[in-house]
Amino acid sequence: MVHLALTLSLTLALVCSGFRKQDNRAAKVDVDSKLQEDSIKQVEEANVKKEEPYHTSGSVVYYPAKYVLPEIARENGVEPPMEVGNAGNMDPKLKELGIDFEGIWWMSDNPVPEELVSFANTVVNLTNGGFPATLMVPNSRKGMWSWLTSTVGNILRKYYATGDPDSHTDFVFKSTLEGDITTGLTGVPGVWVDRFPFYKYTKNCDEFAGDKFLCDPTDCAEKIPDKTCAQLIQDYPDDMWSRPTLFQERSLFSNTTYTLKRIVLGNGLRHPVFWDEFMRHMTKHEKDCPWWDVLGRWCEVVGSHEGEKEMQSYRSDDWCSRKHNAVWGWHLFGC
């Protein structure tokens, strides 16, 4: 839960630093008028949200998870909310290296409500024509990341508004099988991250990773009927990566890991196995609750719909617009 702890503190700082005093009456009248306009706009947007499964609010798009498949989005007359990485929008040096991050990827078993990532528009810097190779991934740009529309998911998405949409994250790969994500959390007191490594699933990934916790070739098919991890590795050798988060010994947090799985292919089609698993994961349950059950402990599930759970992504790279969506009333004080 390190992401949550950091996000809460950073978001609080963002909110507190986003306001400054207005020292004259004319400004106060103008502020009051704009606040009233904001209130009306928010009510209108809330009403739209209740009616439409796919809707926008400023720089943010909200949508059922299944809409990340381009054909489903287009069948419903809307733009796909996530950008599919492909040969046309990714550095050709990736193929020369033998690294394949095309499509859209799911952060399966991620402990925080971040769900999908795209590597579209990645640029590669080589070392003497080869490894180590640095993948500069613009994961702050529109259509590159998704969050659930939960309380924590909203906080995370708003925190991303503090970063420049044109910035990038460096992934440094020393081979086609392993790499590391650069991070500034190594020196943060209490957190003290050690590494954010990447390990490609192979039949012996635990050997080059050095530990089964880092990459376990026997544990990647728990929720896939009639499939073993060995079968998945053999049939889809480029579609799974282990992504541990390792902390220093003095950290307050324990090591965690999740599996990065390709759910949409580079041609925009669904993955033959992992798309269905993702759809099951994103099942929306309809519940019938007694009027007095405010905690939802006695609710009854009356319906389930695969792929209908709501997510959110940025649909604009306008930094000011993102800040306005992150903090109510931000636009009153500029960017």
Question: Could you explain how this protein is built, in words?
Answer:
There is one protein chain. This protein has 335 residues and is α+β, with helices and mostly antiparallel strands. It has one domain (54-333). The protein has nine helices and 16 strands. The strands form two sheets. Strands 1, 2, 3, 4, 5, 6, 7, 8, 9, 10, 11, 12, 13 and 16 form a 14-stranded antiparallel beta sheet that branches. A hairpin with a 2-residue loop joins strand 5 and strand 6 (130-137). Helix 1 (2-17) crosses helix 5. It is globular and about 60 Å long. Mean pLDDT is 86; it is low at 1-36.
Task: Please give the structural blueprint.
Blueprint: H1 2-17, H2 25-51, E1 55-57, E2 60-64, H3 70-75, H4 93-97, E3 104-108, E4 114-118, E5 123-127, E6 130-137, E7 145-148, H5 151-160, E8 169-173, E9 178-181, E10 193-195, E11 197-200, H6 205-209, H7 229-235, E12 240-247, E13 256-264, H8 274-281, E14 284-288, E15 300-305, E16 310-314, H9 319-326
Antiparallel strand pairs: 1-2, 2-16, 3-4, 3-13, 4-7, 5-6, 6-8, 7-16, 8-9, 9-11, 10-12, 11-12, 12-13, 14-15
